[in-house]
Amino acid sequence: MFATIREDIQTIKEKDPALGSIWEVWTYAGLWAVLHHRVAHKLYKMRLRFLPRIISQWARFLTNIEIHPGAQIGRRFFIDHGAGVVIGETAIVGDDVLMYHQVTLGGTSLEKVKRHPTIGNNVLIGMGAKIVGNITVGDDARIGANSVVTRDVPAGATAVGIPARIMIKDGVHLSDRPTHQVMDMALSSADPMGELMRRMLRELEDVRCRVESIEGEHQPDALAHLHDIQRKIADRYGEGSPLMEFYNQITDPKAHPNENLHGSGI
Fold it and tell me: pLDDT digit string (tens) for 203-230?
């Protein structure tokens, strides 16, 4: 127990750059929540129920972090800031997990089964993320801020968005922004739907350029044909004839601003 506490304190020193002195760790709500949980979980495994719940609710009152006594928490678990964190009864959290405030490891079933997530080792869970259901987040995965995860996340992958989608897997980036740092802005701001829309807009722009290129190739021939018709009408019926006036009206671009040479609406 004491060795685990020392590891928890050392983890805070390594993962929180805001820490000034070692004594400040005792002001961290995340540390107190984890310490209370380790005691409550020991009692819970002894098939006690009421006393562990009293401890967990007391810890919630002190820290605004609620960890059910039945949740399995690994070593070197650090909750930074911590406000609003909720971890359900059947959740399993691996070693070296870094979690930020307002994270929920929630359940989606009312049955007494495994209904909460399993978090692998060395996982980063960004602020406000919601991971729900009996799903697995693999080792070394990253969950972006405010993401809603309802499906398994492979090991080493980065999931962002609502619902969360895999943006990075096996080192292959689906966006142009790097996410190698722990708190990289891209991890919190990458938008899979936005990336899809940008890709569609690029394809539409490419199609538009092709259409303009095709129209540009055919336009000189069409104009030459129109001028030839104009000369024939003028030679046969005269410049001031009613037919010539009618021709000028239908070929005047100012009279038909929303049509092209083929008469099709733009």
Answer: 878 887 877 777 666 555 666 666 677 7
